[in-house]
Design goal:
It is built from eight helices and nine strands. With 278 residues, it is α/β, with parallel strands linked by helices.
Length: 278
Amino acid sequence: MNQKLSGKVALITGGARGLGRGYALHLANLGADIVIIDRNLKAADVYEFERELLSAETVMAECENLGVRAMGVEIDLCDRAVTETAVGDIIGKLGQIDIAICNAGGGTVIFADEIDAEEEALDINTTGTPANCNEEMQIRVLNNNLMTCMYTCMAVAPYMKRQKSGKIITVSSSAGMDAKVDAKGYHPYGLAKSAIIYYTRSLALELAPHNINVNCIAPCIIRTGRLGDRAHLAKHIPLGREGTIEDCAKVVEFLATDLSDYVTAHTIPIDGGVIGIS
C-alpha cells in the first residue's frame, strides 16, 4: 500500500478494538506511526469476534508488525486534565500529532469489562427516550461520546496550531443526523452524536486559519464485535448490505490525507444510503 502517511503520527481514541482498531491498522498500512488511547488497551479480549480478529496480542503490536512505531495509553478521556497530560506525554515521545481520530464512545451505559461476571458479560446499552431518560445514563453517554471528543480536540489543538497543520476527524453517527434513524431507547447516544456534529463545525471554523482540517464521519449499521452480525437489517439499506470496518476506514483515509486538503467543517455519512431515504 502507498506509504502516503510516512512520517506522520496518528492518534486514535477508543482504538483498542472495533472501528478504532480498523482505523489504526489502515493508517499504519499507509505508513503513519500510531498512538492508541483507550480506557482498556485489552478491550478486544472482551468480545469473541474481536479476539478472533487480532493477529497479535494488542492493536499496538499489530501496528508495529506493519513496520511503524506504535504506543498505547490507557486513560479515561472523560477527564480533561488527564487527557491533556497524556497528549503532552505523546508529543514528548513522538514529537508531533498530525492526525487525531476521536473515535471513543458508544451507546453504552456500562461496558462488558466493567461487569464482574464469571461468564462472558455483555454491554448494557441505553434505554432512555427524549421524554424520559435517567440522569445517570444521560451523563455517562454524553461523557463517553461528546466530552471525550471535545477534550481530545482541546488537547491536540495547541500542538497542531504550533505546527500549522493537522487533520482532526470526529465520529458521530447516523443517529446524530436524523432522529428517525435513532433506534427506540437510543436517545442519549443520538443526542451526544448530534452535538459532535455541531462541535465539529465550530471547531473547524476556529482552526481553519491555522491550516487544520476538522471533519466528521457518521457511520450507520457497521459490523463490529460489540454489535455483532446485523445482516438482517440489510433490507433497510439502499446498498443492500451492512457496512464493514473497512468501509469506514477508507473514508478516514480520505480525511486523514492530502486528498481532503480543501475539505473542512463537513460530516460524511457512511450508511449505504440510509440518511438519503430517512
